[in-house]
Amino acid sequence: MLIFRNRHASSLKHCSHLLALLFIFIVSSGALLAEEITFTPEEEAAIAKARELGAHVLELSQEDKHLEVAYHLSDGDVTNERLEALAPLSRLIVHLNLRNKPVTDDQLALITGLVNVSKLHLEKTSITDAGLDHLANLKALEYLNVYGTKVTNAGLPKLNSLDSLKKLYIWETEVNYDGVKAFIEANPEVAIIPNLVVEREQLLAKIEATKQEKAAAEMKLAENTTQLEAAQAATTAATAEAEATAKATTDKEAQNKTAAEAAATAQAAAQAAIKAAEEAQKQADAAAQAAIAAIHKAQETAKAAALTGLSAENQKQAAAPKQEAAQKILAETEAAKAASEAAKVKAEAAAKQLEELKVQTEEAKKQLESTTKTLEELTAKAG
C-alpha cells in the first residue's frame, strides 16, 4: 500500500510538471505568434488604401493582429477596385463581410486569393450558384452565410471541398429539402441552418400529431353532436312538459280558487257549527253537572237509606213503644205547622204593609223636601 501511494504521488508530480511545461509552451507560442504577425510596409499601405476606399479594417484583438474587413457599413456599392485592394492583405484577412451589397458572381473571383478567410458574409448579395465556384480555394473557411441569395440545390455540392466548413446559413434561398438532404449526406459534420431535413421531420411528426388530434377532435365533435341532438330532444320534451305543467298549474290554480271559495264558505259554516257546538257543550256541561249533583245526591240518599236499612230491623222493636208518642208529636207538629203557616201569612201581610209604609214614607219625604224647597224659595222671594 505504501509503495502504491509513493508511485501515485510521483505520477501526480510528474503530471504537474508536464502541465506547467505545456502552459509555458502555449504562452510562448502565443507570444511568438503575436510577434510573427507584424505588418509589412506593403500591408500597411494596403490597409490604408482599403480604409480610404471605405472599408472598415479592424484587428481581431490586441493579441491577435489578424484582420476583419467589412464593407457592409460603407457607402456605395462594393466595386472591383475595393475588392482588388484586399489582395495584398491575403495573409492577414480572416473575416470578410460583404452583406447587403450587390456583389456579383464575377466579383467573387477577386477574393479567391484570400485563402485565410474563415468567416465570409455574403447574405443579401446578388450571387448565384456560379459564384460558389470561386470559393473552392478558401480552404480555411468555417462560416459561410448566403442568406437571401439566389443559391439553389445545384450550388451546394460546390462547397463539398471546403473541409473546414462548420456552419452554412441558407435562409430565404432557393435551396429546398432535397438539396439540404444531399448536402448533409455529403457533409454530416456541417451545421446547415435552417436544417430543412430536421424541420421536415419535425413537420411530419407535427402533421401526424395534428392528424391524430384532428381524428380525436372529429370523434369528440361526433360525440358532442350526438349529445347536442339528445340535449335538443330533451329540451324540446322539457319545453313541452313545462308548457303542459304550466297549463295544468293554471287549471289547478282555477280549481284551487274555487276550492278556496268553497273552503271559505265551509269555514264560515264550520265556525257557526263550532259556536253552536260550544253552546251545546255548555248546556251539556250544565246538564252533566246537574246529573253529577243528582248522582251524588242519590248516592248520599242511597247511603243513608242503606245505613237506615241496616239499623231499621234493630230499631223496629224499640220504635214500637214510641210510635204512639211519635204520632202524637206528629199531630202536634202538624198543628204547629198550620199555626206557623198562619203566622207566616200574617208576617207576610205585615211585611207587605211595612213596604207600603216605606213607600208612603219616601213619598212623604219627597213631598217634604219639595215643600221645604218651595218655602225657601218663597222666603227668599219675600226677602
UniProtKB/TrEMBL annotation:
<feature type="coiled-coil region">
    <location>
        <begin position="193"/>
        <end position="234"/>
    </location>
</feature>
<dbReference type="InterPro" id="IPR032675">
    <property type="entry name" value="LRR_dom_sf"/>
</dbReference>
<feature type="region of interest" description="Disordered">
    <location>
        <begin position="363"/>
        <end position="383"/>
    </location>
</feature>
<keyword id="KW-0175">Coiled coil</keyword>
<protein>
    <recommendedName>
        <fullName>Leucine Rich repeats (2 copies)</fullName>
    </recommendedName>
</protein>
<feature type="coiled-coil region">
    <location>
        <begin position="263"/>
        <end position="290"/>
    </location>
</feature>
